[in-house]
Amino acid sequence: MEEQIRKLARSSYWQSLYRNSKNLNLSLFFNNNNFSGIQVLFLYWLKIYDLLYQELADQEWNNLNENVIKNNFRCDAFLYYRQKEIEKKIRKNKQEEKKLGRKNKGNLTNYPIYKGPKGKGNS
Amino acid sequence: MEPKELDLEKVEKAKEIISELEVDFTERDLIQDNKKPFIIDGKSYRCRMPSQLELNQANQAKKKKYMQLLQDSDTLSKKKLKKLIKEKFDVDIDQLELELNEVRNELQKLYLNTALKDDNDESLKEDEKKAEEIKLKFINLHATIGEYLEPCLEEQLRKYHREYLAYLCTEKHIKNDKWEQVWKSFEDFEKENGKLVYKALDSLETLLLNIYE
Question: Model pTM?
Answer without folding.
Answer: 0.78
